[in-house]
Amino acid sequence: MNPMSAPPNWYPDPSSDGLVRWWDGGRWTEHTQQARPVVHTAPRPNGNSYAAAWWIGGIAFALLVLAGAVLLFTIVTAIVPLGSDFFETWQGVYCGETQQCDG
Questions:
Q1: What order do you get walking across the sheet with 19-23 strand by strand?
Q2: 24 and 10 in contact (C-beta within 8 Å)?
Q3: pTM greater than the 0.85 cutoff
Q4: In this structure, what is the dihedral angle of CA atoms 12, 15, 18, 24, given to the nearest 10 degrees?
Q5: Per residue in 46-101, pLDDT tens?
Q6: How many whole angstroms from its chain centre is CA 35?
Q7: Which residues are CB-neighbours of 31 under 8 A, at least 6 positions away?
Q8: Where are the alpha helices (DSSP H) in the chain?
Q9: Ranges of each domain in the chain
Q10: 7-34: b (≥16 Cβ within 10 Å) or e
């Protein structure tokens, strides 16, 4: 940086490491102070990346629930056939034991 064209501010002292000196816009002054360490921070992700993660997670969860429902339906229909014969058989067994199905 060419201090001759720089606005007034604290700049690294040209005569001493670790110090900054005040440039008044036209000349160096006698005012110095310790240079503050520069802290570099990583940029924070924007909200769009979080929104995308929520959408992907939501869709994955919905697919998992759907797959579970299909699996449960498949198991139930394999164990208990849902045809009319099943209900007639069940009614016949129940009515045969209790004799209360006449009606």
A1: 9-12, 19-23, 28-34
A2: no
A3: no
A4: -30
A5: 667 778 888 999 999 999 999 999 999 988 877 766 555 655 655 555 565 555 66
A6: 39
A7: 21, 22
A8: 47-79, 84-98
A9: 3-34, 50-98
A10: eeeeeebeeeeeebbbbeeeeeeeebee
